[in-house]
Amino acid sequence: MRLTFHERREAVLGAAVTEFARGGLHGTAMDRIAERAGISQPYLFRLFPNKRALFEAAFVRSFRRSAELYAQAAGDLRGEAALDAMARARERLLDEGGFPQLRLHAVTAVLPAGDPGLTTCVRRCWSELRTTIEERTGAAPERVRAFLAEELLLVVERTLG
């Protein structure tokens, strides 16, 4: 069965999350991603113009996945009950292939290089996730910041083992 363009792109993003989680932006070869996705490297470059664009798309995908899981987990709950449900969903998310490591690699990629586009992407993703959590839970901004700070700590702990 042939995959549609969208399905193939999603498969490539899944492969990219896994590979970038291992090697980061600068330590991951595009041929490894193409191999994992089961496509040729030239086709990979038809889907994404360069490695940075693919890295950014994989990073955005990881945050969208978080927002979707958090919204599903919260359902009609509000306040602490919604945050508790999101925290349980977060545990499942952190066990999924590569999301925690990819987030750390994205933050470290923007620090030394000062890549303004990637910096903007990282800020936007965290901001959108914060907004989603605030809107779905009705929690105060400082409580949502604490939830996200805990998430970042868990990401570091999972990454370091």
Kindly summarize this structure in a few lines.
With 161 residues, the protein is an all-alpha fold. It is 84% helix and 0% strand.
Based on the model shown, name its key terms:
161 residues; mainly alpha; Tetracycline Repressor, domain 2
Residue runs with pLDDT of under 50 for 5 or more positions: none
If helices are DSSP runs of H or I spanning 4 or more residues, what is the number of helices? 8
Percent of residues in helices comes to over 70%
- The CATH superfamily is identified as Tetracycline Repressor, domain 2
The quaternary state of the protein chains shown equals single chain
Terminal Cα span: 39 Å
The radius of gyration is 16 Å
Q: Identify the CATH architecture.
A: Orthogonal Bundle
Q: Class in CATH?
A: Mainly Alpha
- The CATH topology corresponds to Tetracycline Repressor, domain 2
Secondary structural class = mainly alpha
Number of domains: 1
> What's the β-strand tally?
0
DNA-binding region: 29-48
Keywords: DNA-binding, Transcription, Transcription regulation
GO molecular function, one term: DNA binding
Organism: Streptomyces griseochromogenes
